[in-house]
Amino acid sequence: MADQERILTANIGKKASSDIDSAMQGGAYEALIKALTRMTPEQVLNEVKTSNLKGRGGAGFPAGLKWSFLPKEKNKIKYLVCNADESEPGTFKDRLLIENDPHRIIEGIIIAAYATNANAGFIYIRGEMVLGAKILEKAISQAYERHFLGKNIMGSGLDFDLYLVRGAGAYICGEETALMNSIEGKRGEPRIKPPFPAGYGVYGKPSNINNVETYANIPTIILKGGNLYANLGSKDTPGTRLFGLSGHIKNPGIYELTSDVTLRELIYNYGGGILGDKKLKAVIPGGSSVPVLTVNEIDVSMDAEGLKKVGSMPGSGGVIVMNETVCMVKALLNLIKFYEHESCGQCTPCREGTHFLRLIIEDIENGNGKEGDCEKILAICKNIMGRTICPLGDAAAMPCESFVKKFRDEFEYHIKEKRCLPETSKMTTIFSV
Amino acid sequence: MALVLIDGKEIVVNQNETLLKAALRENIYIPYYCYHPALSIVGQCRMCLVKVEGAPKLLTACTTYVSELPKEKKIDGKYDMKVFTKTEEVKEAQRGILEFLLLNHPLDCPICDQAGECQLQIYSYEYGKPRSEFRFEKLHAPKRVDLGEHIVYDAERCIKCTRCIRFCNEITKTGELTLVERGVHTYVDVFEGKKLNNPYSICTVDICPVGALTFKEFRFKERVWFLQATNSVCPECSRNCSIRVDTYKGEIMRIVPRFNPYVNNHFICDYGRLITERIKNNELREMPSVKEKDILKPIIEKEFYKMLLSKITRKYKLKDVLVILSGRMTNEEVEAYKVLSLLLFGEVLGESLYITGDKDEILIKEEKRPNYFGEKLLDVKFTKENENVLSLIKDKKLVISIREDIFKGMNEDQIRKALSSLDAFVVMDAFFTETAKMSDFYIPLANWFEMEGTTFNFDGHLQKISKCVSPPKGRKPFYDVVSTIMNILTEMETKDFETDKEKEIESVKKVLESFKDRDVMKGGFLTWFKEVKNAIPQIKNVSLKDIVPLGFSIKGSKDGNS
Predict the structure, then answer these.
(1) Using the beta-carbon criterion (under 8 Å), do A356 and B134 form an inter-chain contact?
(2) Best residue in A177, A347, A375, A390 to probe B by mutation, most B CBs within 10 Å?
(3) Could you report the predicted ipTM of this complex, rounded to two decimals?
C-alpha cells in the first residue's frame, strides 16, 4: 500500500480553497477545458467507462455505465443530479469536499453534462449543511461569472445551468428517487422502480444521479486518463476513496486512500489505533447501514470484493470503530432508533418493522428482554429485507441481523441477566471527534 | 403478449399489464391492499409479493410487468416467466406483512363498521398468523377525525395504502388528502384549509380496504353481514350508475357502487348515493286519495278507481288533456302508459319533461332523468329544456302527472290559479309531494327501489332495476296500476256504463280487443318487459339474462365512455 495519495483532497488545506481563484491555481477547471476543447462527449463518456469509476454513494454502481443509460437524443431534456444529502451515520466525507473544494464537484458535474448532453443540474444538499450550502452557492455563482456555467459554456455550444436545492433534513431524501420527489416539492418518498431515473427522473425527465465524491473524481479521470485511474489501487474499486474514521479511534477524520487498504491498516496505521489502547470489539466498515464486523474480520481490503468475504460492503466509506467497552445492544438501539425515525412510512415492512425492532431492542437494553427475542429480531429482519420499495428497509435490517448474529452471546446475556456485560457497563463515550 | 406459468397454470399477460392484473383476470388470487384497478400503482403495501423464478428476491405482482423473451431464452422453451404464489417463502412473506400491518392496529372489529367486509380480517383469516408476538403498547393516533361533511377517519385502523389520496388526486383531481408525519406515525389528513367535500368523497370509503374511512350516513347503522344486497341502478341522472342496494328488514341502509365498465366503472357520486337520506325525508301516503272539500282523503282502491274513471273517461277533446310523463318512468311503465292512454283517450298523449342540471366530466350527466333516452326510443315527446309547467297547463281541462313533482319550488298562488280552471288534476307519484297535495286524485306508486324495470342510460345501455324492498300494499308499480284500471274498466263495461254511455263502451271495447293478443291483463314486470321488447326493435333478441348484472348496449361499442 503506497502512502496516502491525494487526488480528491489535493486542494484541501490550501488557503481559501473554496474560492475559484485559489481553486484554479490548484488546477480546477483544467479538465473541463480539456474536455470541452479537445474531446467529444463520446470520448469523455468512454474515458469514464474505461476508468471503471464506481459510485461512491454506497451501492458502488459503475458511473460510466449509469451515464450511458441516459437517452442519447440531443433534443430530449435531461437532468443531472448531485446527491449531497450525506446523512448516513458515520459518514462525513462529502461535507469535507463541499466545504473545502466545491469547484471540483461543480467541474465534475459540468463534464458529466458535456458527456451526457444534459440541460440542467441540481445539487441536492442536506438541509443541516448550512455552511456547505452557502459555500456551494457562492462557488456556483463564481462558476457562472467565469462562464463555466450558463449558455454556450466557454464557446463550446454547451448550455448548462446548475441549481442548488436544500433538503429539509430527511435521511430518506438521500435515496435517489425520494431525492427527486423532494426536488419537485413532494413528500420525500422513494418511487417504485422501474422506471429508473435514467428514464423517468426529476420532473419526469431522464436523469442521472451521482454522489458528490463520484463527481469529484471526474476531473482527475479526464486529466490523467481512464486507464491510469483504472489501475490505481484496487481492481474492483479503482481510484482513491475518502474513508471517514470515527468512534473509538485515536486519530479520527477523513483519509484519502486507495481501496486496497485493509481495514486493519486503516484502523491501526492511519487511525493510530484504538482510543485508550483498549481492545477492538467491532467495526462498521461503510456507514451504519452495512453489516458489522468483529475483531477477527478486519484483515480484508476495503473494496467490495474484500468486504464481501466477511459479509459486508464498502458502503459510503464511513468506518465506525467500537472498542471493548461498547455495549452492542445499546449501540444497536442507537442505530435502530435512527432508522425508525427516518423511515418514510410508505411501505409496510420498513414502517412497522423498524418500529417493532426498536421496541424489542429497547426492551432487551432496559432489562425487559424475553427469551426468544433474538429469534424474533432475526425473523423481523428477514421479513423486512428485500421486501421494501427502497434500500432503507435493508439498511435497517442488515445491522440488526449482523449485530444479533455476531454478538448473540451478549444479547442473550442481556436478556438473561437483565444488564450489560461487566466490561461494557462503563461505556467510553466520545465527546469530540 | 407474454406467456406466464403461474402456479402451474398458463396465462397470457398483455403488454402494459401487470402480473397482478393478469392473475386476477384469470382467477388466480393474489392478496393486495394498495392496488386498485382505477388508480395508479404504488407498490406500497407489499402484500402481493410473489416468487418469480430467477429473481433474487420476492417481487410485488402489482408492479411487475412481463416482457417477451427471445426464443432461445424462453423458460422450458415456451414461457416468459414462471411465477409461484403459494410457496412457503411467499406464505411466510404474507404472514410477515400481515403481522406488521396488525402491530398497531386497534383490533376493534366488534365496533368497526368495516367488520365483515374488511380486507384485514379476510386476509388475516386466510394468510395471517394465529397469534401476534407484539407485546408492546400499540401506538395511538388520531381517531374520529372529520375529514369532510360525510367522511370520518380513524388513523389507528389505517394501513396507509393511500388509495383515498390517489382517488382524490387522480379521479376527482381535487387533491384534498395527503399523508402527514413520517414512519410509523404516518397518517392521512386533509391539507390545511381544505375539507374532503368533493362530489365523490364517499367513494374513498368504498375503496378503503379497512375501516379507516367510514361515512356518517351509514356509520354504526348496521352490521354488514345482516345486509341484503340487491343489484340495481341509480335514478339520479341519465348515467344510470350500476349500484348495489344494501337493505335490512325492508329498509335501505346504504348504496354502494357496482363495477360496470360500460357505465360507471367503479364509482358513483355522493348525490346519487345519498338518495337514501332524501327518500327518508319524503312524505308518503299509502292509499289512493280523492279530494273532497279541498281535502285529499284516502279511500279504498276499488271505489277510488271508479270515481277516477268516471271522471276522466268523460269525453275530453284531446287538446284539453295534458299528460306529463317523466324520465323517471322505466321502459315498462312507458309501455304500460301507452296502453292506458289508448284506452282512455284512443290515442297516445303526453310529453315528458326535459329536465337538465349540473354536470361534470366524471359521471354526473346533464340530463337528470334516468330513462330519458329510453323514452326517446319509445317515441315519447319531450318538452323544451326545463319548460315552465304552468304555461303547459293553460287552457287544459284534464292534467295527469306521472312520477314528476311538477310544481316543485313554484309560487303557490300561481299554481292554484292555473289549477282552478281544471276539471281534474291527477297525480301518480311515489311520494306525497307538493304537487300531489294539490291534486284531485292521487295514486301512490312504488318508488324506484320498490319495483322492477329496465332503463336505457344516455349512452343506450340497457340495465335492469330491481325490487330492493317491498312497497306497502297500497303503493304499486305503475304497470300494476294500469292492470287494475283495466280490470275495473272491464267490470264497469257491464255495470255502471250501461245506461248512458254506450258509445264510449264501444270504443273501450274496441281498444281492449286490440290488446287481446298482448296479454296485458295479467300485469307484472315480466309481461311488461315482453311488451317493451315488442316496442323497441333493437332489443328484440335481448333476454333478461343479458341485462343482468352489467347491462346491454344497443348503440355503438360496448366500451361506454367513462
Answers:
(1) yes
(2) A347
(3) 0.92
DSSP notation for B29-95 = ----SS--TTS-----S-TTEEEETT-SS-EEGGG-B--PPPGGG-BTTTBSEEEESSSHHHHHHHH
| Best residue in A340, A351, A366, A385 for a mutation probing chain B (most B CBs within 10 Å) | A351
From the candidate CATH numbers 3.40.50.300, 3.40.50.10320, 1.20.1070.10, 3.40.50.11540, the one assigned to the domain spanning A20-230: 3.40.50.11540
CB within 8 Å: A389 and B184: no
Query: Do β-strands A207-211 and A79-84 pair in parallel, antiparallel, or remain unpaired?
Result: parallel
* Binding-site residues on chain B for chain A (CB distance < 8 A): 41-47, 49, 56-58, 63, 92-93, 96-97, 99-101, 103-104, 133-136, 139, 159-160, 178-179, 181-186
Distance from the B370 Cα atom to the nearest Cα atom in chain A, whole angstroms: 42
The structure's pTM equals 0.92
Whether B322 and B399 have beta carbons less than 8 Å apart is answered as yes
**Cβ atoms of residues A202 and A122 within 8 Å:** yes
**Dihedral pair phi/psi, residue B464, rounded to 5°:** -100, 135
pLDDT along chain B (562 residues), means of 10: 94 94 95 97 96 95 94 92 96 96 96 96 94 93 96 97 97 96 96 96 97 96 96 96 96 96 95 95 92 91 89 80 94 89 85 93 95 92 88 90 90 86 92 93 95 93 94 89 83 54 63 61 77 86 87 61 38
Query: B63 and B12 in one domain?
Result: yes
B183 and A347 in contact by Cβ < 8 A? no
Write the CATH number for B429: 3.40.50.740
